[in-house]
Specification:
The protein is mainly alpha-helical and 140 residues long. The chain has a domain of 74 residues: Cytochrome Bc1 Complex, Chain D, domain 2 (Orthogonal Bundle), CATH 1.10.760.10. The chain is built from six helices and no strands.
Length: 140
């Protein structure tokens, strides 16, 4: 959802970049005709300026499991997986246990009546991302 909003804002911003309209008449420069000379112009050789190539990458940003935990998990499970209120403690669990539960939430085979809260948080994660988050959590 946040990604869609960000993309929408970027696209709408791009629409306004070229929308400056015409300049008022007082800002427009008037080119006055000049006298024609009959002198032969001197030709000088110029070398093109050296330019530094601009690196453009279309590679997506690498997944940061620590940031993902902070944004997706910590508000309910605590910054160190200590658990909050009705939300269970994650600290002390193994990487395999956490990964198995996250995959179970994603495919609907794990969780009780409150699993609806977890589904939006895991649906967008790949198996590799689940493993990375499980690794972070297992160190709490």
């Amino acid at each position: 959802m946040k990604k869609n909003i960000l993309i929408g804002l970027m696209l709408s911003g791009a629409l306004f970049v070229g929308c400056g309209g015409d300049k008022p008449k007082e800002e427009q420069k008037v080119v006055e005709p000049t006298a024609v000379t009959t002198a032969t112009p001197t030709v000088t050789e110029t070398k093109p300026e050296a330019t530094t190539p601009v690196a453009t990458t279309s590679e997506p940003k690498a997944f940061d499991a620590t940031s993902a935990f902070a944004s997706k998990c910590s508000s309910c499970h605590g910054t160190k997986g200590e658990g909050k209120s009705i939300f269970p403690k994650l600290a002390g669990q193994t990487k395999d246990a956490i990964a198995k539960k996250l995959r179970g939430y994603k495919d609907g085979t794990f969780g009780n009546d409150k699993k609806a809260m977890m589904i939006p948080n895991v649906n967008s994660l790949t198996d590799d991302e689940i493993e990375k988050i499980a690794e972070v959590v297992s160190k709490f």
